[in-house]
Structure formats: C-alpha cells, structure tokens
Design brief:
Blueprint lengths: L1 H19 L21 E6 L2 E4 L5 E13 L7 E8 L5 E4 L1 H12 L1 H16 L6 H23 L3 H15 L10 E6 L3 E11 L4 E10 L37 H4 L10 E4 L14 E5 L7 E6 L5 E10 L6 E7 L15 E8 L9 E8 L5 E9 L3 E10 L2
Antiparallel strand pairs: 1-3, 2-3, 3-6, 4-7, 5-6, 7-8, 9-10, 10-17, 11-16, 12-15, 12-17, 13-14, 13-16
Length: 400
C-alpha cells in the first residue's frame, strides 16, 4: 500500500510540471494579460479663506483660498495630474507647503506670536470703544504687553533663531505651484462660482477627467462673543481690576425690579471656605447667593449681534429643606420692570430649575439657547423662590 501511495505522489507532481511548461510569456495571448484599467480621478478640497474686518464690520482684506488634493484609483501605476480652473482670470496658485512652513515658524515663536496677537486684539478694539476708562485700561495693557514682547524677543535662543532662519530659507526655496501638482492652493480673486477640473494620466497613457463647481462665498465678519461682566461673581474681576463680584448684576431700580415690590434686590455673595482642599464652586471662590425669601435678583444687559444664535451656560445649587426654584431668563432690552419680565412678549428664552433630586449645595450646569433677533442688547435676569439658592460661572458662546 505504501508503495502505491509513493508512486501516486510522483504521478501528481509530474502532472503539475507538465501543465506549468505549457504557460510561456513568449506565446501570444498566453501568460500575463495587458493592464487595461484606466485611472478614475477624484479630488478633495478644504476652504482656508481668511479675512479681517474692522470693529464696524467693514472689510479690511480677504483671501479666498482653497486647498485641493488630487487622487485616483491607481495604487501602482505612475500618475500625472493636470488641473484647470474656469474662469481663470485673477486666480493664482500657491505651493501647499507654504502654510505648513509658516505654521512651523509660528510654533518656534509661540510666545512672541501670542503676545503680538494680544496686542493686535486690543488695538483692534480701541477705535470703536466709547468708554474712556476702558480705553485707558486697554492702552495700559498694551504698554505692559509691549515690554513683555521686547523681553521675549531678546530672550530667543540661538537654536530658535537658527530654526526660524532655516524655515525661512525653505520658504524662499519653494518651487512655484503649477497646475501639474498633486496638491496645491487656489487663491481666487473674489466670491463667485468656479469650475475646477482634474485630468489624471497613468504611465500607460490612459487618462480620465472630472470636474466640480466650487462656490466661493463672500467673506463675512466673525460674530463676536458677548461679554458677561463678573461672570463668576468674583471680586476685582471687572475690566479695570475692581468690583465686588456684584457690581455688574445690580438692577437699575430696586423698587421697579423687586419681586416683592420694594426693598433691596442686590444679590448676596457666597464664599467657598476651603477652595484649595475641598473646592465647592464651579469657578473661583465666590458665587451669587439668593435668600429663600425670593427678594434678590441678578440683572445684566449685554451686547449681542442681531440675527446671531447664542448658547449661555451657568450653574445652580440649592438648599434642600423645602421645595425651591431658580429661573434664568433672557429678556428683550425694552423690558423695564419685574412685572414686564413676566410677560411672554418680553421673554426671549428662559429656564426654571428646581431642587427635586438635587444634593445640598452641589452645583449643576444648565444651558439656554436663544436668538438675538433684531436686538443689539439683551438682559440676563435671574430670580429664585422657596429656598436659599446659588448661581455661578456664566459662559456664553456663538452657536455655529
């Protein structure tokens, strides 16, 4: 039996050798087949448009730039790329390596860049500021920052200076971008519609074409984030380093804005007794305290951009001895009394939270989303009832 299996093994092996000898690259239509797969081009793009507007939303400059990167289905064969743009008048090409090298320089000079940006931000705000006290504070801040900037520039190491010089040399040596680059940046002369075409050719001469209609939108000013003064009710947190944590939250009139029809409406302040070892507050060491009687209110009018949508967040905490509520509202700027603050016509948005299921003095975060509509300012208004309540750490952002 073993002899029979041994002979069978060699018979099978001989058959494979015989079959293999029949395949030859020298015979017509036998062996490797011609590669007839052509390229299928595609491309991705990212808008990197940048612009600058003054504080009156007047455009200073705008760069309408898009980064394009070509690709195809070919993983092995060599490829060639050729871009086209219509209309082409005023369109310029930028080497895609340029922004990377520029960002590398900024990284080397991170401290200096940060100081320069702070100075530029303050210089941007001054021309449109009408409060001379705020102007004086900003000018004083600029003077301090300029001293820090000079010191930071003087402290640059030889290694950093050499790194920056090397990067600048690489920028100077960059080849000009061409329509045959796989990746490049198109800089458009302005808003409009542009047809971007791409032809990909493989190393066998086969090619294919694709195109897309690209819409370049008009640059618009960035919506500024509103400023909430003394957002965490901290002492000395006003723009000039003063304030007792409550100054920005005082109602225009005690009698008109009192929930009880008279008496003081000024919020109290709760201080964290041990903020280092057992921090209790969401931010800082102070929070607004509202007595159980419901006679205190928080009131602050802030600037907003008409048409914008905002998200405002804050924290509440409650005592637990009985049922209690805290109501935070966004009111129209024409609201002029506590009674008017209860009218639906004057309430842009509101939220009421209670102490059901809450833990004594443990803060919980809440959010209110609201639209500015046609308003240039809105009023933040807060009241409580039932139990002693606390409010802290307001933040606001523009909803994108």
């Amino acid at each position: 039996m073993n002899t029979y299996l041994y002979k069978l093994k060699y018979i099978v092996l001989g058959m494979f050798v015989s079959l293999a000898s029949c395949v030859s690259d020298d015979l017509a239509d036998v062996g490797d087949l011609e590669d007839i797969t052509g390229p299928t081009p595609f491309y991705n793009y990212t808008e990197i448009t940048s612009s600058e507007f003054d504080c009156n939303d007047v455009e200073i400059w705008a760069k309408y730039e898009f980064n394009f990167e070509a690709g195809s289905n070919l993983a092995v064969n060599g490829t060639g790329y050729e871009w086209s743009v219509t209309p082409s008048e005023g369109v310029t090409l930028i080497n895609s390596e340029l922004p990377i090298l520029e960002q590398s320089i900024e990284a080397e000079l991170a401290t200096i860049v940060a100081l320069e940006e702070k100075i530029a931000d303050l210089e941007f705000k001054i021309p449109c500021e009408t409060d001379q006290d705020k102007i004086d504070v900003m000018e004083a801040e600029i003077a301090v920052l300029e001293v820090e900037l000079a010191a930071a520039e003087a402290a640059l190491s030889e290694e950093t200076l050499q790194n920056v010089a090397d990067l600048e040399s690489q920028i100077a040596a960059l080849a000009a971008a061409t329509l045959n680059d796989q990746e490049l940046i198109f800089s458009f002369p302005g808003p409009g519609e542009y047809t971007i075409g791409l032809t990909v050719t493989d190393n066998l001469g086969k090619s294919d074409y694709t195109e897309k209609l690209i819409t370049v939108n008009q640059a618009v000013p960035t919506i500024p984030v509103p400023e909430i003064s003394e957002p965490s009710f901290e002492d000395n947190s006003l723009f000039d380093g003063t304030g007792d944590g409550r100054d920005s939250w005082r109602a225009p009139s005690n009698d008109v804005w009192s929930p009880l029809g008279g008496g003081t409406t000024v919020i109290q302040i709760n201080t964290d007794s041990d903020p280092v070892n057992t921090p209790n507050l969401p931010d800082g060491v102070q929070a607004a305290k509202f007595p159980a009687g419901g006679d205190r209110v928080a009131y602050q009018e802030i600037e907003v951009t008409p048409g914008a949508t905002y998200v405002m967040t804050y924290f509440t905490a409650f005592e637990e001895d009985s049922y209690g509520e805290m109501k935070v509202s966004i009111l129209t700027p024409n609201t002029s009394s506590y009674a008017e603050a209860q009218l639906e016509a004057n309430i842009i948005a509101s939220r009421t939270d209670n102490n059901v299921g809450r833990v004594d003095n443990v803060f919980k975060k809440h959010a209110i989303t609201f639209e500015a509509g046609e308003n240039e300012t809105v009023i933040i208004f807060a009241t409580n009832s039932g139990v002693e309540s606390r409010l802290d750490a307001f933040e606001i952002s523009v909803k994108q």
